[in-house]
Amino acid sequence: MTRLAKSWLPFAALAAIAVFVQRILPTAHLTQITMSLYYAIVVMGLCLVMGYAGQVSMGHGAFFAIGGYTTAVLTTYNFAPWKQSGWAGLLRQLHVLVLKEDLYGGELLTTTPWTAFVVAMLLTFVAAHLIGYPALRLKGHYLAMATLGFGLIVHKLVLGSTLTGSADGITAVPPWNLGLGLVVSGKRVVRVQNYYIAVVLVLLLLLVLRNLVQSRVGRAFQAIHNREAAANAMGINTSAFKLKAFVASALLAALAGVFFTHYAGGISPSEAGAIKSVRYLALAAASGMANLWGAAVVSTAINFGSLRGWFGSLDQAVFGALLILIISLAPEGPLKPAGLWLQRALGWLVPTRPAAPFPTAPATPGAAPRAGE
Amino acid sequence: MTLLDVQQVRHSFGGLVALDQVSFRVEPGQIKGLIGPNGAGKTTLFNIISGLLKPDQGRVTFHGAPIHHLQPFQIARRGLSRTFQNPSLFLHMTVLENVMVGRHCRSHAGFGACAFRWPGQRREEREIRDAALAQLEHLDLVRLAGEPAGSLAFGQRRMVELARALATTPELLLLDEPASGLNTREKEDLAGVIRRIRDRGVTMLLVEHDMSLVMALSDDILVLHNGTPIAEGSPSVIQADSNVVRVYLGGDFEHAVAGQKSEMRLR
Questions:
Q1: Contacts of B107 in chain A (CB under 8 A)
Q2: Which residue, of B169, B185, B209, is where some domain finishes?
Q3: Neighboring chain B residues of A358 at a CB cutoff of 8 Å
Q4: Which range, of A49-63, A183-197, A246-260, B238-252, averages the lowest pLDDT?
Q5: Which residues of B touch A237 (CB under 8 A)?
Q6: Do B130 and B196 lie in a common domain?
Q7: Where in the sequence is the domain holding B72, given as residue range(s)?
Q8: Average pLDDT of A192-213?
């Protein structure tokens, strides 16, 4: 196999699996997979900050919620009373605000989803810096503490504020028209389309993250994870790179939150809960930490089962048991051994050529290739 | 012009004064030895020069500019690299990747450039890889390029760490006990490698307990004792210095000189 083919094979395989899944599953089940794919983006982000850069975040549920709630509030808040004012007119011309009719024929002047998306990303960018900057200048688990506290605060805020709908959350979030005829929405007619929007989004992010981890920046992350002092002595600005990994990861969580909220048509405070953050963390661990493909596949599969109600009222317990099982049987994530079996099986079918002179993958048979290789 | 100038450096850990009134210079092109009994403060001095510790008092200037207030990564960028007493490789990365990390401070591709493979990023990535491979070749390590660093033997780790430090293209290289834990053959190889590195124009500051190695390699030696320099000069001067002999062997001076000399020859 050429190097080029090897680097694209996982993408092709994942795309093929996605098409296969869509063909065999009843269309109704696609809803839960689509949601699971959005959750998987959060886990992929955690994989970057934890698996590669070695920094633990206990607050990714909060970043997901910041993304979701920002878009939910902005796209449902009615600016109609200020319709006549100059700034509202200007913002309408800039496509920041849009005039619609609500269910009862009333006037609804709301923010466009694209604007809300941009605001959500900016807000997350700022929040992640505020949390990460002080915590990541220090060595140790300060980020975990800071993000845990941050998550609890965000949860209390969305629960307690009328702007965010208190305990009910926000419903009736409008569809997000992406352009090119693509609409992020949970309506039945666009269910298949939305499944593929999520699949393509996950694949694109996998591509970007793979590029990143196989680059100068990715090596810096891994070096910091391995030995922070040595990384610093080798010329890596460790605090800056830890912060970059954390902010990027928070942005991914918020991005997932925005898509999820438009798809589900709303968001509830439980998305910001500490239990959600822990769940993402556990899924990242079960995926093999520094394994982007594992993060995408394993977390989608487990969340799908959970959302379909396979685990019944014992959801958390079965979820926990499954994680313990994966971590004890395949500590580097289930994808790695599976990949090795596949390689061996393919080896029987296709005789392999001698290895390239400088393989990036370890040359020893006992050592498995790393994520994305 | 003096490459490294350490002036009146003092450092204490709580009440313990590890270094006091340490002053010395390293001239370009030389190999300077730094010796002293265990606990003399050699590694502390290395940590201060490379920025891992900040001195309580005193100045460290590199190329005439003060560096004692800088972070390690900033000092590395200025051309001062180091190895560690216990090889501190990135164990979950391959040997090649470890050395490629050494090129970090000589490359620029940022977050966006790497994530989206912007023009120039691929070329720079190739340059990083080629430069790292060239370093591995210099030290005869190419066959290990694809191995995970964690699977290497101790001696190999030392050499890979050296390659990583050299990949930063330093002008001054601090070597912290490069020969400790190596067998006789590996020590001989190391001496050859250090000479080759010097011939490439890299100045070195060498902490080492193996006296025959230090004496053979160094142009100039500084002796630390209890955090303070007690002697400085060429290997022959140091070997004849009564203070040094007393510190290393203690007690009776006449007897000590004879003993020390014969021991040095034996080693």
A1: 216
A2: B169
A3: 96, 133, 142, 145-146
A4: B238-252
A5: 71, 73
A6: no
A7: 1-79+170-254
A8: 94
In the predicted model, what is the mean pLDDT of residues B159-168?
Answer: 95
On whether both B41 and B158 belong to a single domain, the answer is no
Which residues 6+ apart lie within 8 Å of A256 measured at CB?
A38, A39, A41, A42, A45, A64, A67
Same-domain check for residues B40 and B157: no
Average pLDDT, chain B: 89
Q: Are B35 and B206 in contact (CB under 8 A)?
A: no
Statement: residue A355 has pLDDT above 70: no
* DSSP-assigned letter for residue B93: S
The CATH number for B73's domain is: 3.40.50.300
Residue B89 to residue A253: CA distance in whole angstroms:
32
Contact call for B151 and A367, based on CB within 8 A: yes
**Would the CB atoms of A212 and B145 count as touching at under 8 Å?**
no
Residue B66 CB: number of other CB atoms within 10 A?
12
Structure tokens at B28: 């370009």
Take residue A218 and report the two structure tokens written for it: 């990715």
Q: Is residue B265 part of a domain?
A: no
In a domain, B264, yes or no: no
Instruction: Kindly report the number of other CB atoms within 10 A of residue B197's CB atom.
Output: 21
Q: How far is CA B263 from CA A363, B188, B266, in A?
A: 45, 19, 5
Token look-up 């060595």 returns A139
Residue ranges per structural domain of chain A: 29-349
Out of B152, B169, B186, pick the residue that ends a domain. Answer: B169
Around Cβ A129, how many Cβ atoms within 10 Å? 15
CA distance A57 to A27: 35
**A293 alpha carbon, distance to own chain's centre:** 12
Interface probe with B: pick from A234, A241, A332, most Cβ of B within 10 Å: A234
Q: Which two tokens stand for residue A311?
A: 């685990």
Pair (B180, B106) in one structural domain: no
User: Is B104 within 8 Å of A226 when comparing Cβ atoms?
Assistant: no
- Whether the CB of A49 is below 8 Å from some CB of chain B: the reply is no
Within a domain: B267: no
Find out whether A21 and A210 touch, Cβ atoms under 8 Å. Answer: no
Q: Tens digit of pLDDT for each residue in A289-309?
A: 888 888 899 889 888 888 888
Task: Verify that B164 and B42 share a domain, yes or no.
Answer: no
Residues B69, B175 within the same domain: yes
Q: B117 CB near a chain A CB, below 8 Å?
A: yes
Residues B56, B18: Cα–Cα separation, whole Å: 11
For B85-138, write each residue's pLDDT tens digit.
888 999 999 999 999 999 999 999 889 899 999 888 999 999 999 999 999 999
How many domains would you assign to chain B? 2
Mutate to test the interface with B, among A204, A215, A222, A336 (most CBs of B within 10 A): A215
Is B85 inside any structural domain?
Answer: no
Inter-chain touch A236–B168, beta carbons under 8 Å: no
Question: Is residue B54 domain-shared with residue B64, that is, in the same domain?
Answer: yes
